[in-house]
C-alpha cells in the first residue's frame, strides 16, 4: 500500500509517499505527479522518509517524474522493462533541476545508489535546504 500526500511550500509541491512503491502502486505516484504538474507545480520535492520499499516499478515512477518535469516525451508505463531502460535518457540530461528527493530511508537509498539514480537526483536530508535549492 502507498499513501501520497501533497502540500505546497512556496512554489514547490512536496509529495510525501509512505508505504511501498512497487508494481501495485507505482502508477498511483505517476498519476499524482501528473496531477501536480498539470496544476502548474513544475517543481517537486519527493519526501521518501516514510517509504519502506522501492521496486524497479517504483524506479520507473521516479524516472517518469523526471521526464515530466522536463517536458519530455513520456514512456508507456505498461512497457515495463523498456520504460526503465529509457532511464539512460534521463542520465544523459544530468542532475534534475525540478525533481529532488528528501530523506530516503537507508534501504531505499541503497536501491537508488545501486541503480545510479543518486547521480541525477539531488538527495537532501534537510527539508529547508532542499526547498531553497530550487
Distance between the termini: 30 Å
Topology as a string of helices (H) and strands (E): EEHEHHHEHEH
Q: Tell me the name of the CATH class.
A: Alpha Beta
Q: How many structural domains are formed by the residues?
A: 1
Task: Describe the model.
Helix 1 (26-38) packs parallel to helix 2 (56-69). Helix 5 links the parallel strand 4 and strand 5. The chain has helices at residues 26-38, 56-69, 81-85, 87-92, 106-114, 127-132; strands spanning 2-9, 12-21, 43-54, 99-102, 123-124. The chain has one domain: Transcription Regulator spoIIAA (2-Layer Sandwich), CATH 3.30.750.24. The chain is built from six helices and five strands; from the N terminus they run E-E-H-E-H-H-H-E-H-E-H. The model has no long low-confidence stretch (mean pLDDT 87).
Brief write-up:
The chain is of the alpha/beta class and 134 residues long. It has six helices and five strands. A five-stranded mixed sheet has the order 1-2-3-4-5.
Amino acid at each position: 500500500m502507498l499513501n501520497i500526500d501533497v502540500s505546497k511550500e512556496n512554489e514547490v509541491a512536496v509529495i510525501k509517499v509512505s508505504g511501498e512503491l512497487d508494481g501495485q502502486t507505482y502508477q498511483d505516484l505517476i498519476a499524482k505527479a501528473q496531477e501536480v504538474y498539470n496544476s502548474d507545480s513544475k517543481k517537486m520535492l519527493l519526501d521518501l522518509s516514510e517509504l519502506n520499499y522501492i521496486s524497479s516499478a517504483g524506479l520507473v515512477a521516479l524516472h517518469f517524474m523526471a521526464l515530466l518535469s522536463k517536458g519530455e516525451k513520456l514512456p508507456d508505463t505498461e512497457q515495463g522493462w523498456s520504460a526503465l531502460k529509457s532511464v539512460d535518457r534521463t542520465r544523459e540530461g544530468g542532475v534534475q533541476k525540478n525533481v529532488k528527493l528528501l530523506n530516503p530511508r537507508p534501504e531505499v537509498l541503497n536501491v537508488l545508489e545501486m541503480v545510479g539514480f543518486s547521480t541525477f537526483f539531488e538527495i537532501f536530508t534537510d527539508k529547508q535546504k532542499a526547498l531553497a535549492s530550487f
